[in-house]
C-alpha cells in the first residue's frame, strides 16, 4: 500500500489551527513529526496519501465524525491505575473525614479519564475508605470516543494490572478465563459508581451539575495554552463546593493561574 507523503509546514499549521479550535490542544513546531506519524496512521486506515487532501476531507465532513477520529489520533492517552498515588491516598483521607462529619453524598469529576484506569482507581478508593459508598459517584469524561468506549468496557490486559495492589485485584476484578492474552474485567459494583460521557474541556460551560467535592484533572492541561487553562480553572472553581479539592498532574505548572484556589501541597488545591 502507498505510504502517506510528507507533511509540509503550511498543512501542519492548518492541522494545528484546526486541532486548537476543536479541542484546545496547542501543537508547537516540535510536534510536526508527531502529527505526521499520528495523522499518517489515520490516513493509512482511510487509504489516503496526501495530507492536504485529508485536511479538506476533515473540514468537509459535517457529521463531525472525522474530526473525532482526528482528535482520537492526535491525543495522548497514556494512563495507568493509581497513577501519582499521593492523590488517591489524600482522597481516601478526605472522604473518611467528610463521612465522619456526616456527609453521605460524594461527587468526583474525573475530567480526562482516558481508558478508565483513573476513574476505576477513584471508585476503588471511595469504596475502600467510605463505610457507606451508596451515594458516591464518579463522572468520568474525555474528548475521545475511542477511549471512552474502552473505559466503559472495563477490560484490561494483565500488563495494565501491575499497579493495582493484589488485594484489590482479587476484590474488584474478575480474571477472564480462556482469554489470550490474559484479561481482567472490572467488577460491576465499581462500574455502577462511574458514569462515562464525552466532554470537551476546551468548550465550557460543561453539562454538569455541581456542587462537586473533588475534581481530578490530571495530565491534560499540559496540552493547553494559558487561555484555555485559565478558563477551565474558572469553571472547576464554580462547580466545586467550598472546601472542595482540585488535583492536577504533578508535572503541570499552573503557577499564577490559580489565584482563586489555595495551594494545599504540590498539585493539590482547595476552593476556600
Ligand atoms: C495523558 S491522558 C491522561 C489520563 C489521566 N487523566 C491520567 O492522568 O492518567 C490525556 C487525556 O486527555 C484527553 N483530552 C485531550 N484533550 C481533551 C479535551 N479538550 N477535552 C477532554 N479531554 C481531552 C485525551 O483524550 C486523553 O485521554
Would you give an account of this structure?
This protein is α/β, with parallel strands linked by helices and 272 residues long. It has two domains: 9-74, Chemotaxis receptor methyltransferase CheR, N-terminal domain (Chemotaxis Receptor Methyltransferase Cher, domain 1, Orthogonal Bundle); 86-270, Vaccinia Virus protein VP39 (Rossmann fold, 3-Layer(aba) Sandwich). The chain has ten helices and ten strands. Helix 2 packs across helix 4 and helix 5 (86-100) runs parallel beside helix 6. It starts with 8 loop residues before the first helix and ends with a strand. The mean pLDDT is 94. Bound molecules: S-adenosylmethionine. S-adenosylmethionine is lined by residues 23-25, 75-79, 83, 112, 114, 118, 142-144, 147, 200-202, 218-220, 223, 249. S-adenosylmethionine (SAM) is lined by residues 23-25, 75-79, 83, 112, 114, 118, 142-144, 147, 200-202, 218-220, 223, 249.
Uncertain regions: pLDDT < 50 for 5+ in a row?
none
Radius of gyration, in Å, reads: 20 Å
Q: What is the number of helices?
A: 10
Note the main sheet. Answer: 7 strands, mixed
SSE ordering: HHHHHEHEHEHEEHEEHEEE
Percent of sequence in beta strands: 15-25%
Overall SS class: alpha/beta
Q: What is the CATH first-level class name of the largest domain?
A: Alpha Beta
Bound chemical compounds: S-adenosylmethionine
CATH superfamily of the largest domain: Vaccinia Virus protein VP39
- CATH level 3 topology of the largest domain: Rossmann fold
Percent of residues in helices comes to 40-55%
Strand order of the largest sheet: 6-2-1-7-8-10-9
Mean pLDDT: 94
CATH architecture of the largest domain: 3-Layer(aba) Sandwich
Give the overall shape: globular
Termini gap: 59 Å
Number of domains: 2
- DSSP summary, beta strand count: 10
Amino acid at each position: 500500500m502507498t505510504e502517506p507523503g510528507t507533511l509540509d509546514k503550511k498543512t501542519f499549521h492548518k492541522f494545528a489551527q484546526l486541532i486548537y479550535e476543536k479541542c484546545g490542544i496547542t501543537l508547537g513546531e516540535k510536534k510536526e513529526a508527531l502529527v505526521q506519524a499520528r495523522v499518517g496512521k489515520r490516513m493509512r486506515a482511510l487509504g489516503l496519501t496526501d495530507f492536504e487532501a485529508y485536511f479538506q476531507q476533515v473540514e468537509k465532513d459535517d457529521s463531525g465524525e472525522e474530526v473525532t477520529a482526528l482528535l482520537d489520533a492526535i491525543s495522548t492517552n497514556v494512563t495507568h491505575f493509581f497513577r501519582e498515588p499521593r492523590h488517591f491516598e489524600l482522597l481516601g483521607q478526605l472522604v473518611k473525614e467528610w463521612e465522619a462529619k456526616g456527609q453521605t453524598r460524594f461527587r468526583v469529576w474525573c475530567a480526562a479519564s482516558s481508558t478508565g484506569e483513573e476513574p476505576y482507581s477513584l471508585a476503588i478508593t471511595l469504596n475502600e475508605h467510605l463505610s457507606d459508598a451508596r451515594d458516591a459517584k464518579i463522572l468520568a469524561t474525555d474528548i475521545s470516543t475511542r477511549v471512552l468506549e474502552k473505559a466503559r468496557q472495563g477490560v484490561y490486559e494483565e500488563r495494565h494490572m501491575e499497579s493495582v495492589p493484589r488485594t484489590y485485584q482479587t476484590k474488584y476484578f474478575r480474571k477472564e478465563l480462556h482469554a489470550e492474552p490474559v484479561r481482567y474485567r472490572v467488577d460491576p459494583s465499581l462500574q455502577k459508581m462511574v458514569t462515562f460521557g464525552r466532554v470537551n474541556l476546551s468548550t465550557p460551560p460543561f453539562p454538569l451539575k455541581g456542587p462537586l467535592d473533588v475534581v481530578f484533572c490530571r495530565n491534560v492541561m499540559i496540552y493547553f495554552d494559558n487561555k484555555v487553562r485559565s478558563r477551565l480553572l474558572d469553571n472547576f472553581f464554580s462547580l466545586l463546593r467550598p472546601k472542595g479539592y482540585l488535583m492536577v498532574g504533578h508535572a503541570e505548572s499552573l503557577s499564577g493561574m490559580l489565584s482563586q484556589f489555595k495551594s494545599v501541597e504540590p498539585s493539590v488545591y482547595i476552593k476556600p
